[in-house]
Amino acid sequence: PAGAKFAHRACDVPAGSYDVVVRADGRSTAVVTGVPVAQAGSRTVINAAATAIAAPASDMAGVGGTVLVQGGTALTVPAEARVRALQPLSGGPTVELANVGVDTQGAFSVRLPIAAPVRWTYNASTPLSLKPDDAVVGKVVLQAQAPDRLPLEEGLDLSAPPASVDFRFAP
Length: 171
Known about the structure:
Elements: E1 16-22, E2 30-37, E3 60-71, E4 74-76, E5 82-88, E6 94-101, E7 107-113, E8 118-121, E9 131-132, E10 139-145, E11 152-157, E12 165-169
């Protein structure tokens, strides 16, 4: 939302390097890679308060389907099944755009940006400067997950999304 400010307390994460992903409906994804956290409790400023991380507007694609276990002719909903929407960026990393559970029928639905994600590699001495990653426009991978099962994946082009993406785990 306009004028919104977001903060994340560094003490919630261990020391290391992180990729910060900012997503909003109607906007492309913004990614700042290599954000350092020197130690638990320390603070890393990505950008000044006056320079918001503002991703460009984007059309959205609705993607839905089911996650089920195929057992002969019977289909069942796997307990605690989830679907992640992932977007591999040029040269890495792969970022998570969404992570949704399935309903009691095994159905899921998610809205994803079609436009190119914008990205910047963190550098404390230069101002935030997001650049589009045009090579991955509309390219995502849906990944179905369920406990005690290997994930299933399906690559999609959001410029022409399928009517349904249905995942079937073996019994």
